[in-house]
Every structure is written in C-alpha cells, then in structure tokens.
Amino acid sequence: MSAKENPEVNLIFTNHVAQTLDEVVERMNPSSVHVLVDVNTEAFVLPLLQAESKAVANAKVIRVKAGEMFKNLDSLTSIWKQLGETDANRKSLLINLGGGVVTDMGAFAAATFKRGIAFINVPTTLLCAVDACVGGKNGINFNGLKNEVGMFRDADLAIVSTLYFNTLTSQELLSGYAEMLKHALVCSPQLTKKMLSYDVTNYNPDSLLKLLEESVGVKQKYVAADREDRGARRALNLGHTIGHSFESLALERKSPLPHGYAVAFGMVGALVLSRMKFEFPSDILNAYVEYVRRHYGAFEISCDDYKRLLAFMHCDKKNDRPDAINFTLLRSPGEVEINVPVTDDDITAALDIYRDLLGLP
Amino acid sequence: MSAKENPEVNLIFTNHVAQTLDEVVERMNPSSVHVLVDVNTEAFVLPLLQAESKAVANAKVIRVKAGEMFKNLDSLTSIWKQLGETDANRKSLLINLGGGVVTDMGAFAAATFKRGIAFINVPTTLLCAVDACVGGKNGINFNGLKNEVGMFRDADLAIVSTLYFNTLTSQELLSGYAEMLKHALVCSPQLTKKMLSYDVTNYNPDSLLKLLEESVGVKQKYVAADREDRGARRALNLGHTIGHSFESLALERKSPLPHGYAVAFGMVGALVLSRMKFEFPSDILNAYVEYVRRHYGAFEISCDDYKRLLAFMHCDKKNDRPDAINFTLLRSPGEVEINVPVTDDDITAALDIYRDLLGLP
Question: For residue A80, which of B190, B206, B151 has the smallest C-alpha distance?
Fold first, then answer.
C-alpha cells in the first residue's frame, strides 16, 4: 500500500482510498458511519466506494444539494437533522465525500453536532484536495457573505487521492491547479518551475498525486505557523486581492469566474506588483504569464473597469487602511512579504501591465 | 480591587464588574464591542452596567428572547444577523450578559461568527455562574433535543459576581445552589459540610462570592482533566441520572421541575445508592437530606411512577448497556466512582428509600 501518513496533520495521500478508509474506520471503531454526498458525488463516486469499501457500503447516506449556492444554513440544518434521523451519536463518524462545499459544510456540521463528532474528508475535486480540506477552516455562507459562519477544526483525517478527478472538466482541473501554482510561488523557485512545466489537463494520476502532496505540504507549513489566519498564513492570499475583485466584477457581469481562474489572473497582477516593488525575477514572471495565457486565457478588463475593481479591493475585509490596500507580494518565489500597502496608482499601473501581458486591448 | 485572576481559565471573581470589564476591554482593544442581552437582563442589568462601564455604554446591543424555549436555531440565526448588522468583524468582542441560555447561545454564536470572535461571559444567575459559564460547553437545542448542536470553546473571560442575584427568586438561587452542593460532594467532606451549613436564600454577596469561587474551582479541576466529557468529567453527572428522569416525569405531568431542584432530588437517590454500594457515610447522607427537605421540599413520586422513571433512565444518552444503568456514585465526599452499573432492582430500592427519607407517603 502506497499510503503515506503525516502524523501531525492526519493527511494520507493515496490512490487506494477504499482500502485506506476501511483500515482507518476499523481503527477508529465508531458507533456508526455516515457519509455525506451531494447529487454529483452520490452518482459518480459513492457507488465506486460502496463497491470497494465495507465501511462506506454499511454507512448511512446523508444528502445535500450540489453547488456553492446551497452552501447555506438550510443545507447545514438538513445535515444536522439527517445525522439525528440516522441515529448518529457522539461516537459516530461522518465521511465527507465531495468538493469544497461538501467538506466545508460537512466539517462544520460534524464539529457542532452534539458538540463535535469525528469526521474524515475525502475530497473529490482538485481544488478541494489542494485547498479546502486542509487548514481546518469550515463553514457556510450566511446573510449574503461568504463563510460568514464557521470555525476552525481539523478533520480527524483527510484522504487525498486523484482517483476521482477523471470526472472533472479541464476547467475544474485548472481551477484547482491555480492554488497549486500559488503554493509553488510562495514556496520556492524549484517547485514553481516544476509546476509550470506540468500540464494538469493531461495529468497522470500518480504524478499528480505526488505534486499534490508537495503542494499541500506548503500550505500545511503556513497553516501550522498561523492557524487562525492572523499573520504568516496571509502568504496564502497571494493573488487573492485582485482575484477577488475580478470575481466580483464577473458576478456583476453575470458571467461568474471560477475561483481558481480568478486567483490565476490575480496572481499575474500580484507578480507585476512584486516586480514593481521588490524586483521579482522577470524570467519567472514571464514563464508564469505564459502558463496562464496558454491554459487559462485572460479575464477581460479595460481601463473603464479600474474604478469598480479598486472599489471592490477597498471593500475587501482584509483591508484596514483607507489610503492603501494591503497585498501579499513576493521578492522571489518563496520570499513572501505580507501586508504590503499599495496605492491606487500602483494598482492601476499593475492592471495596465496585466492587460499588456495577457494581450488584452 | 478584590478581583482574583486565574490565568489558566480566564475567570475573574469580583463584585467590581464594570471596572473589571473596562480594564479587560481596554487591554483586549477590540475593533467594536457588542453586548448580548435577553429582555430580563436588558431591563434589570444592562442599565446598571451602562451607567458604570464605558465599554458597555458604547457597546451595540444585541437582543434575544428570554427562556429555554428560545434557546434555538432561530435565536442563534438572529444573533449572527445582528452581529453582522452592527458591523462586527473578526476583531470584535461579544459580551454575553445573562443566564445560561444567553451565555450558551452567545458563546456558540461568537465562536462561529466569521470563524470565531472573542467573547466574555457575565453570568447574571447563580446557576450560570456556577455551571454554564465554565467548562467551554455551548450550543442550542435542536430538533427537540437539548444541546444537540454546539461545541466546546472557553470564553476569553468569564466575570463571576453575585451583584445581580438580588433580582433572583429563592427558587432560582436554590436551583443554582444545587450544583454547588454537587461540586462540594464530589470534592471533599469539608466543603460539603461548609455548603450544607450555608443558607443561600439569605446570602451575603461577599461570602457567596467566596463560596462560588471554591465551587467553580471544583468544576474546573474535573473539566481540565477531561475537557470533552468522555471520562473523569462524568463525576459532574452526580444526581443527574435520577434527576433527569424526575425532570422528564415532571414535564409529562405538565408541571416542570427546575433543573437544580431535579439535581438536588436526584442526588438524594444517588447518595442512597452510594450508601448501598459503597457505604457512603450515613451522617453526611442525613445532613444532605435534611438540607434538601428544609430548602427544596420533595419531588413527589409513588411506586406507580417507578416503571416510567426507569424507562426515562434507560433512554438516557449516557447509557450503553441494556441490563443496567451507569451511575456516578460516591464512596465518600470527594471519592467518586463513575460508570457504576446499577440494576433496576437496586434503583427501585433506592427510590423507596428516597420516599422514606423525604417523608413521602
């Protein structure tokens, strides 16, 4: 068995998911097992696991609707209810089988049901594997705000595999890969070059699993240093300030931008600012831009959009000062500067260069 | 200032509440202060604190309905909403001003709003001071079940005082004092004797504050040994197995029994069983029964009720075996035995003796 265990954070990277689950569940010896799915993972992933894993075959199935718009209080309430109806008690185990919405809600439900039961995350998307299932953040959207309600609690275990990615579209793979590129950029030149020479849309399950393990390792390092996201962990915000403003603008245009794409484009802006402020190396900037152009295309903006984008950035909850916006920037891959105040003029200049680099008119 | 700080658990025992609050809030330097009240504490306690505490005078007031029946998802949702509407952010502080319902819900809301903001509990009832605001348990009732949803998180600070007890009825004082008697019984003969010679219905604010500090100290010791209530903390279940069955029977009779009264009566049964099983000293049993008769009276049961009471006990969630019920019992005050299996016959015998001791026909 190729499973590799990290005792500190309860993460296993393996493509033998069913076997690993059965071993772990046997060791945990819960009084009952419940598995949370959405309509997608119920159709495409649950049957595979039910066929191979005794623990899942015997588990009680809890269902929620699929998609970010159902990451809400109604779905959370429904999970609590279904846990009660399927006789979960304090010694029960919940397996969250799905993408970020399922693991975020399932983790929060488990962490609060009868004041906390055990849970295992089995991410079925690349984005969730690399991001949502590590770091202990969970929660729901509430009152129109993302992740307004939730908490920090690590899963008892996350089983990361690439087994179920064959049902993902190229767009979903690329969306997840953007976070892996981010981890590479805040880690080292070596990992950055390795990630930029890998075509995730044409992945091999074993090589991608190895890359995932390296990438998640980077996130863990930052999370361990700053569990509640008040300092060092802000390295992981690279690309997110401009990225979020792109996401918000795309929403206004009624053509939503996948989160990973927004981050990929936002990091172009962040690396441009990093070059302006800290002489970030141009060869890596160019290689990154080339990767984005080839795989992600471009998020189209014109100078008419700048005012709106700046307004979004000033609203960003991570911002404390009215006269400048705090960015996470890089001196070079792995050399992170957090809380760098950047003026509107500098951002405007960076957006001009973003358009040039991505060939926008 | 008589405040005494326990650095481990962030508890201050003082009757200088306003001054203490202002000092602590200044040190915490939150971006905003919000104070949660119910209609009772809004009318009787909030004005006093607003007059004396700058922090409370400037705080934004968040309101919930009063009473256990409103310890539910609707009230929780309303607190989250009001936190958002009063512009709370991750660096805000919530002060929970009330009894157990307010501190349980306020703590859960604060622990989950934006993945957790700081909160201070200021209990205004004896029961909350001695019990609910220590130990980190919070939550709401859900789906007809008590505390079905919640978590463990310590308050950043609890300020325990006897200042606001003058609005409590004798029944409310005695209900809280039952938990103090319980703490004494699981602690030592000395503390038991001291508590049994104190008339809480005729209390002096300073002497009661000192007793409270001793009593809460006992709870802290057990909680520290077993934060998530899986072993040693079960000492604190003394009297609760029979007590809960009395509460349930009283509910069926449509004349609810205050929780503390149920515990006081339940402990008579538990001490009788302790005498039967472990030769618990008869002088202390008699002194305890005398205190209960004088102050609490008796919960009336006849042998016709035994079957129903046993059924309630078998349903109790803390019970794992069908052929016996697990009790927390005492060899003597402070010498606790948890998970003692007791047969229906022994319980029946104990209920007979309970009726004798309390002078029931």
Answer: B151
